[in-house]
Design a protein that fits this description.
This is Phytanoyl-CoA dioxygenase family protein. By secondary structure, the protein is α+β, with helices and mostly antiparallel strands. 15% of the residues lie in helices and 30% in strands. The radius of gyration is 17 Å and the shape is globular.
């Protein structure tokens, strides 16, 4: 088994002091709600909670990852040549436990992303509120670099989420809630600590997570070879 990566990548963020950027849009509010209705209809029967690589499975998600305003903000952050490393469509159904522990998007046991050449995006497909499980972030938390992580103890159908070791689940004293209307989006430093709660409302909460990379962003462990989805640039 390959040894875990040990690079910490401490230091400043390409997204500024807080390590995240809001005020972005991936679609209009009405069109985002229409996409949400399609997702709910498709996954209601099985109550699917996580859809991996949604941009390869759904036409709307393939368009979403290259939304002009969003992609321009990504290029401003990591450069002109951009590819999608992965996406996760996450559906929080009402009445079902779905807490996501504190974690960082740019590290796992297979790879680490260089924060100067990668960025995470979160797209609100439905409205995201404190009641239905919007993001909570710790501004500036990227500065300590990557922290030790492990799988949570859980029997959930969605699988066990990767969380920061030794960090209790639940809101943090320095945490900031990030509610969004459907159609809005944010960018996050791939080292930024963030989490979310379960959905306590009567409707589904849906978000799309995207990891964007520039050439040379990925440091793999062992034989892992990521499959990239190029959007701009050449030489991929």
């Amino acid at each position: 088994m390959s040894a875990p990566l040990t690079i910490s990548y401490t230091g400043p963020s390409p997204l500024g002091e807080d390590g995240y950027r809001t005020g972005l849009e991936w679609n209009t509010n009405s069109r985002a709600h229409a996409r949400a209705a399609e997702v709910i209809a498709e996954h209601r029967a099985e109550r699917t909670e996580v859809v991996l690589d949604a941009h390869l499975r759904s036409e709307w998600a393939a368009h979403a990852v290259r939304a002009p305003g969003l992609l321009a903000a990504v290029q401003e952050t990591i450069g002109e040549a951009v590819a999608v490393e992965t996406t996760f469509l996450m559906i929080k159904w009402p009445g079902r436990e779905f807490r996501v522990p504190w974690h960082q998007d740019g590290t796992n046991r297979r790879m680490q992303l260089d924060p100067a050449r990668s960025v995470a995006a979160w797209l609100a497909i439905t409205d995201a509120t404190t009641a239905n499980g919007c993001l909570q972030v710790i501004p500036g938390s990227y500065a300590s670099g990557y922290l030790s992580n492990d799988r949570e103890v859980s029997s959930a159908r969605r699988g066990r989420a990767l969380g920061v070791q030794g960090m209790p689940d639940g809101p943090h004293d320095h945490g900031l809630w990030l509610p969004f209307d459907a159609g809005q989006a944010c960018l996050m430093d791939v080292r930024l600590l963030h989490r979310s709660d379960s959905n306590t409302t009567a409707g589904a909460r849906i978000g799309l997570n995207i990891r964007y990379v520039a050439p040379g962003a990925i440091r793999s462990s062992g034989a892992h070879s990521p499959s990239l989805y190029p959007l701009t640039g050449s030489g991929w």
